[in-house]
Design a protein that fits this description.
- The chain is α/β, with parallel strands linked by helices.
- It is built from 17 helices and 23 strands.
- The strands form 6 sheets. The protein has a 7-stranded mixed β-sheet with strand order 15-16-17-14-13-19-20, sandwiched between helices. The chain has a 6-stranded mixed β-sheet with strand order 10-9-8-11-12-22, with helices on both faces.
- α3 runs antiparallel to α7, α4 packs across α5 and α6 packs across α16.
- It is globular.
- It binds glyceraldehyde-3-phosphate.
- Glyceraldehyde-3-phosphate binds next to loops.
- The site of glyceraldehyde-3-phosphate has 9 residues, from loops.
Amino acid sequence: MKTPFLKIPQDYKITSQVHQSTYLVNGDLKPWKGDVAEIYSTISSTEAYQPTLLGTIPQLGEKEALEALDAACKAYDKGKGLWPTMKVIDRIACMEKFVDQMKTKRDEVVKLLMWEIGKTLPDSEKEFDRTVDYIYDTIEDYKQMDRDSAKFEKSGGVNAHIRRGPLGVVLCLGPYNYPLNETFCLLIPALIMGNTTIFKPAKLGVLLLSPLLEAFQNSFPIGVVNIVYGRGRVLATPIMESGKIDVLALIGNSTSANALHNKHPKKNRLRLVLGLEAKNPGIILPDADLDLAIEECLAGTLSFNGQRCTALKVLYVHEAIVDEFNSRFSARVDGMKLGNPWELGAKLTPLPEPGKPAYIKGLIDDAIEKGATILNEKGGEITDNYIFPAVLYPVTKEMNVFQEEQFGPVIPVVSFKDIEQPLDDMAESNYGQQVSLFGSDINTLSPLIDTLVNLVCRVNLNSSCQRGPDTYPFTGRKDSAFSTLSVHDALRSFSIRTFVASKDNDYNNAILGQILKEKTSNFISTDYIL
Ligand code: G3H
């Protein structure tokens, strides 16, 4: 199959490349004269296919990584730093300054999201807007948290003023599929709680941060946000080996999370905030509304080409309805439009990882060799930067596509007779993020729901799996996550309860009263932020 080529609208053409020639450390955008890495898009700008050069980023080394670490440690300054001791209202003001500037960069960031990772225009816009909303919601939640702690408690003759305090220095690593949103869902709560940070963008989806660097530089005190570019192994390894990191915040895969965790010499010091891989199943019961189930399974399996940790990565369909489901679902898959991200109605878009079509083809070939067939006509058609989603049936445990998190456009369908089969598979699986359950009889659904909530962390009833709305807890069992993220939970994950206690007597109470009256402490305060 030939990659279709349509003229690129003027607004979305790459008219100038982005050469990121600085990195942010200790409040400076430091010029970099050393090695650089070229960033290519798998989208072609010309009719004869060739990847498009988008720009370059620095390839920093161990020295620069440790320089960023030092800057973050200095800004935290053993808890004495300006940022961790700052009044909540002042930290919020810095965040508001940042988000005000961020909003002015929407068009630039959205365009780069499309080119760098191939996300559709509506989804790229949504990623940007959702991130801005996330920042505002975080600010509001933090204000509420602050109001809730603007008081003293008394128990057993001891007065206590309890708040949440920062943990220290955070190393933050985001994923390529949501390079803005998921990264900021770690970075923003980490920052607002008073931690200092070192942030390394993902390998893909990196240039889109360039328009935001100045805002980071001028919104926060020096050393609070440090941004480094280069290979994860080169930069993150010495940072972790130093033992000076207090929180590893990573959305990615468990292999890299475990490797970095193992580098830290003082594990009890290290908190983990991890969003990792998943293999969320869709379970379609015989009494399911098939129109609805097909619609939700399409979105669940193929939004952003299946490159979502929350994607439905295996469909279990009851044997009584599997034939009907397969033929209707396959026809709908073949009807999906493949195009560049800005093309109206494009639902399937180029895959940003050059090796991905071949990897997916490998999964398809392995499944076919072991007895599956491709149900849809276009399934497996390959172009320079894409492979059309294949609906594979019947899929068995022996196939790699059943075992691996494909993170791309291929849909394994397994038929089942006894509901114990998907339940056993889920219990055996290394993953435990979410499930989608399609059906209508409450006598069947209820006991199933009661079991499924103990195997995963979100049961989506007649709905595809997803992270949002961001106010809901986002987490997983087993290899799928560590800690919980939501607007509110993230603030908790990046902080710890810490308090001032004093025996309830006149002497102590007079001191506390004076501190409150004179407003000499940023921590002990009963002021309200409205
Ligand atoms: O990659 C995993 C994302 O958290 C999924 O988020 O369900 O909103 O697409 P989403």
